[in-house]
Predict the structure of Farnesyl diphosphate synthase.
Amino acid sequence: MTDLAAALAASAEKVNARLDALLAPVDGDEGRVIEAMRYGTLQGGKRLRPFLVLQAAGLFGVPEARALDVGCALEMIHSYSLVHDDLPAMDDDDLRRGQPTCHRKFDEATAILAGDGLQARAFEVLAGDTVHPNPLVRCQLVAALAEAAGAPGMVGGQMVDLMAEHRDPATIDIPHITRLQQLKTGRLFEYACVAGAILGEAPEADRQAMIAYARDMGLAFQIADDLLDVEGDEATVGKGVGKDAAAGKATFVSLLGIEEARREADRLAEQAVGQLAAYDARADLLRAVARYMVTRQS
Ligand code: GRG
């Protein structure tokens, strides 16, 4: 096992245990929504975003327990986005992480409430004093996550994605896809990294370095995701276009082709590593994770 694989596994174990505690089951009718929130969150997942929070926070001397709660709050937002993205009104998916999607396991109304509940719980955790003794720091963390997850970020990106269905396909070019993905998936990665700097009350230059690193790494992640989609499609269906492209959506791969997309993902991963030039060996796992984003198999 590489150092990164071991560190990812150790971090995921801590994140899973803390998420389990933060989403404790309750009795009564409302227990069903908690059960669905737990289902949407605790059924696997790589826990990349909390790992990034922990690693970025480590650069700025932040105690791990604080970073862990921020990472768990972020993972709740990520999980809510997946539960809602799978709904019939969005992607209408039956499987997530190899298991029935939340609305298939429960029902549509419960899955909507589970996503809503996860979002609210995330902000409740962030506002709690286990995260940081200084309420101004907690306020900054809350405001930054609201921006990353909301209309200026992930939700806005999802809207741009939905609107693309009504656009002339010829107008969907690389700048359009880049912006869409920076909002839809990139902003949560940016939050993961800048949250470490906010927790450490680091200077603005560090915050910008964390954002620049995450921006390049997040795009590399997304291109790799498109490549995995095509490779999975080649393996299982033999069409070799990927689920999104087969559904008529433009992707980095459909616009650039497989080889060029792979080169661009590698270039962005190295650019992400370059953004960490000012940091010592404590940033080595962040460097490794940028390279892992483009070599991962799931
Ligand atoms: C519904 C508000 C709302 C937003 C949905 C992020 C998003 C917006 C939808 C996810 C759709 C999707 C599958 C995008 C591909 C990239 C991505 C975010 C993959 C899932 O992230 P991983 O690989 O997943 O970190 P795990 O399962 O490891 O947590």
Summary: Residues 204-236 form the longest helix (33 residues). The chain has a mean pLDDT of 94. DSSP finds 14 helices and two strands in the chain. Residues 45-46, 48, 81-82, 84-85, 90, 97, 154-155, 158, 184-185, 225 surround geranylgeranyl diphosphate (CB under 6 Å).
